[in-house]
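We now fix the convention by which a protein and its fold are recorded. The integers have meaning only within a learned vocabulary of local backbone shapes. The record below shows the convention in full.
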Amino acid sequence: MQQWQGNSNEDFAKLVNEFEALPALYRHALNDLQNKIDVIKTEWQSRDGFSPIEHVKCRIKEPKSILQKMERKGYGFSLENMEQYIHDIAGMRIVCAFVKDIYRLVDHLSTREDIRVLEIKDYIAHPKPNGYQSLHLIVGIPLVLLEGTRWVKAEIQLRTLAMDFWASMEHILYYKFDKQLPSHVAEELKEAARAADELDQKMLRLRREILELSEGDSPSSGQH
């Protein structure tokens, strides 16, 4: 993690103290977002007999990390800059079984009035050079406060189980080698990413085949 390059440690400590209360606002927004996702899971489970969402993880970025990210990106330290430029203070990761379910969920979120999809970065259709795949959303969540409704930003990362496994392993290796992976390790990771993608595609084909067989045996069971 980058070290503080400000005027003094005292200045940094003062800024951290000023930002200490801010995560509470984002935590409320994240809790609200998680409740919405839980309702979606329940509805899909009730209607279709299964939920495409495997599991959900949430986290709030620490004030010190927020300040260091602002410094790294060259933004002046102000609440306005933090709200405008730092989109991942509230973060959620949603892991789905299949790629198709990720896009299904994104389509649903885009139609809701209580969530604003502000930005989409599709690293599934366009993987990063290192092989990373995921779909990132920046969303706005409405909080009704004393002064009125305030839309708070959050980042949602959507992955399949295979993508999540790859990303977890890449993160472990990345820090084990102090963020400088040997070239042969980086190449092996790219190959593993391709293998994860092939696994996702194979499981999607198997799912389609199973559902088609199920429809042939019992029309009423083919609602997935």
Q: What stands out?
A: The CA atoms of residues 118 and 139 lie 5 Å apart. The beta strands are 53-60, 90-96, 116-122, 135-145, 148-160.
